[in-house]
Amino acid sequence: MTEGEVRFYYCGPTVWDYGHLGNFRSAVAADILRRYLKFKGFKITHVMNITDVEDRIIAKSQEAGLSIDDYTAKYIEALWEDFDALGCERPEIVPRATRHIPEMVTLIEKLLETHHAYQSDGSIYYRIASFPEYGKLSKINFAGNIAGASDRIDTDRYEKEDARDFALWKEPATSTEPAWDAPIGRGRPGWHIECSAMSMKYLGETFDIHAGGIDLVFPHHENEIAQSEGATGKQFVRYWIHFEHLKVDGETMSKSKGNYYTFRDVAAKGYSAAAVRYFLLSVPYNKQINFTFDALAGAEKTVAGLRDFRARLSEARTEPGMTEALHETTLRAAQEFEGGMDDDLNTSVALAVVHNLTRDVNTALARKQLREDNQRELLDLLERFDTVLNIFGDYTQEMLDNEIQNLIDERQEARRRRDFVRADELRDELAGRGIILEDTKDGVRWKRK
Ligand code: AMP
Ligand code: ZN
User: Fold this and answer.
1) CB atoms within 10 A of CB 174
2) Burial (CB count within 10 angstroms: exposed 0-12, middle 13-18, buried 19+), residue 134
3) Helices (DSSP H) in 86-190: which residue ranges?
4) Quick one: which of 63, 235, 252, 361 has the most CB atoms within 10 Å?
């Protein structure tokens, strides 16, 4: 472990279709984790794998008459578009399974040598009986055969020594199935082996954090431990973090249940990416979120309100100096935000801090207590919060309608006083901000340039 550095792996998407909001719940949670570690001053190496070969991808690409690379290209491109729109920072390293077959083969060879794996009918399986600690993560009692908890189709067609054993390398069922020639035979990798091989390649045999959705605890992460620790004899991961699911009417949002919305679906209904992100992070990662359009609409209003608040704060005209009480409020908000996030990344506490601060600053604004130094430190603090939350977005100096109206009223007032110098100044200020005034017999009209 290098002091001040965190090496972490997130089990990324399987690119057989567009990502749904459940997938992005986990992606946003991983983004909050990486952003908060950076906020705390750690250097991050974040790896997110892309699963671009597995049973569903093979079936879909064959249906479409495409190679798996041609089939997945569209969904990988879409993934990045969605990722960027949702304000998720791209991980430092994004390995694709199909580009790491030799690393997987080497790991499987090692498992064969150490008798953690065996061949059967041209496929290779992990021998769970060889790893007595199997089950230590999920704390499941593995007496008997336990079906996989995930949605994944992992139908092992061949003879296994034990029903619990899982495939590391699969012999192709037909000559048209994608397969790689390797010393261990022609085949393709099982799903679990890719994460062991790619995480250890980029992060080392022991690394700090391994993340993923809660569905991955068993069997995926349990299998990753068995593979990695079986091969190296060393602790694989120091800390596991699992994100609770996005639910719809009490059921996990998933493709197989058909109860899902992709990010594209909700964007097409007019919801902004910022609202989706806010909604997804409004509940701490370790609690389930229930999806409703009402909640999304609520998030939309909240984000608009926060952005409006930031604009008003930024554009408030302030006198030099500092109001001590507001300074204290600002310092307390900074501490409480960090306290909430330090407490297992409690984003709902962090957001409550932001909302309370908004209320206090609005009161101060109404009482004309906001001074120049308060304004500066509050804007800095919001910017710092947003390095983690990323909900305020980039601030453009676009003026709000009511602000424009205030300046116009002020200009009219100056004209009534026959203070034409001030009136012209106000007209120029508005012009500088892209607002054009038109004096008509019915009063002043304005439009944006
Ligand atoms: P997949 O594309 O199925 O491999 O999933 C990509 C990531 O999304 C994994 O970390 C999953 O655990 C996670 N995930 C899948 N469904 C949900 C859900 N409904 N809520 C939260 N995370 C999910
Ligand atoms: Zn994984």
Assistant:
1) 7
2) buried
3) 101-113
4) 361
